[in-house]
Amino acid sequence: MTVDDPLRATASAEPRFTTVPVKLGERAYEIVIGRDLLAEGAQRVAALAPGGAVAIVTDTTVGGLHAVAITDALEAAGLRVARVEIPPGEGSKSYAEFARVCDALIEARIERGDLVLALGGGVVGDLAGFAAASLRRGVRFVQWPTTLLSQVDSSVGGKTGINSPHGKNLVGAFHQPSLVVADLALLDTLSPREFRAGYAEVVKYGLIDDRAFFEWCEANGAAVFEAGEACAYAVAKSCAAKAAVVARDEHENGDRALLNLGHTFGHALERAVAYDGARLVHGEGVAIGMALAFRFSARLGLASGQDAGRVARHLQAVGLPTRLQDVPGDIGDADSLLDAMAQDKKVRRGALTFILARGIGESFIARDVSRDDVRAFLADEFASNGA
Length: 387
Ligand SMILES: NC(=O)c1ccc[n+]([C@@H]2O[C@H](COP(=O)([O-])OP(=O)(O)OC[C@H]3O[C@@H](n4cnc5c(N)ncnc54)[C@H](O)[C@@H]3O)[C@@H](O)[C@H]2O)c1
Ligand SMILES: O=C(O)C(=O)C[C@@H](O)[C@H](O)[C@H](O)COP(=O)(O)O
Ligand SMILES: [Zn+2]
What we know:
Its main location: cytoplasm. It catalyses: 7-phospho-2-dehydro-3-deoxy-D-arabino-heptonate = 3-dehydroquinate + phosphate. It comes from Pseudochelatococcus contaminans. InterPro entries: Dehydroquinate_synthase (IPR050071), DHQ_synth_AroB (IPR016037), DHQ_synth_fam (IPR030963), DHQS/DOIS_N (IPR030960), DHQS_C (IPR056179). The chain is of the alpha/beta class. The chain has two domains: 185 residues, Rossmann fold, CATH 3.40.50; 192 residues, Dehydroquinate synthase-like - alpha domain (Dehydroquinate synthase-like, alpha domain, Up-down Bundle). The chain has 14 helices and eleven strands. The strands form three sheets. The chain has a seven-stranded mixed β-sheet with strand order 1-2-9-6-5-3-4, sandwiched between helices. A two-stranded antiparallel ribbon has the order 7-8. A two-stranded antiparallel ribbon has the order 10-11. Bound molecules: nicotinamide-adenine-dinucleotide, the ligand O=C(O)C(=O)C[C@@H](O)[C@H](O)[C@H](O)COP(=O)(O)O and zinc ion.
């Protein structure tokens, strides 16, 4: 069943799964969304490389929980399966792990016609995707996302890469997956904290250009955490929104940058904690970043204070952080955060670009944002309690 309207898909009689197309011409692919997709997913992977090999790249946590079942399903579908494991957490998006994964794939004799399969959250997906983009100058890869964040965002759109001490995702490549399999059953083992972090990227789609979806989130956010119908709807709706933007602007020459709402602040905070997930994970950085983007927009007279307050209240209601003070430990000051932002990929000739908003669902790309305005805003955020 292929639908463009995820609501219709999840409301119909007996949908085993929904598919969302990513319309990218010769790089087009499908996102398959549902529960218990082992057999369906394995058949689709096998169809990409009949009788070939697949290297599962995963982290040790996800590997321990889910790799055997997926290996069995892939082998039953006729594939030779190898496995490469990395330590869990943002620290693995590093030069060292990138080199180790590439060498392990070569060691496993993964040929150009074979596949890399990223089984895990966004860390695994970004790293394995970049390794696939680089191995033998490019092999195809499949995203089999296991966190809410990766099912609603990172598995789609082909941004792959690793971090540098200078900033997030500064080394990487655009490399589209050939297939995405989002099995909601895998979310049953995800921690509440990681579930919440992924939810921040769901709310993002409402804040960018879909006020009605934000209102749906306000009404149904709690239900999303049950990994049932509401979650399936949120995943399909998010994927459809992202797929549409990516199809219009694959390489972020234009409005794909809207998907960066909250990320200029958020990425600076992730660098400030040296990618220590015990203090801040990506989705939490995005939640704080989106709350800051709305408060900054209100301060500049672009959005109303009511909308900024409403955004923060909804994020707080599900337990997400919204203030600089919510990050434990020292995160530097306004100047050091500004320094991190200078390495943002949206910077043009040294000028900062932010995603700001005229209201909920009315985000826009703001070029040449004044550093002095950002510095003064951050200094006030540090000084206040962010209320
Ligand atoms: N490429 C993109 O478009 C894009 C988009 C958004 C985020 N990202 C990147 O994604 C990363 C964050 O991804 P994430 O939030 O998925 O974090 P993650 O990959 O670190 O996973 C979070 C934690 O949950 C564990 N885990 C994963 N799946 C599990 C499961 N089913 N059961 C139990 N534990 C499980 C992992 O071992 C890890 O410890 C960041 O590096 C961010 O920059 C990329
Ligand atoms: O797919 C995109 O485009 C996004 O911006 C999605 C973001 O959620 C994601 O965190 C992305 O990795 C950030 O992109 P970057 O170019 O700022 O590294
Ligand atoms: Zn993100």
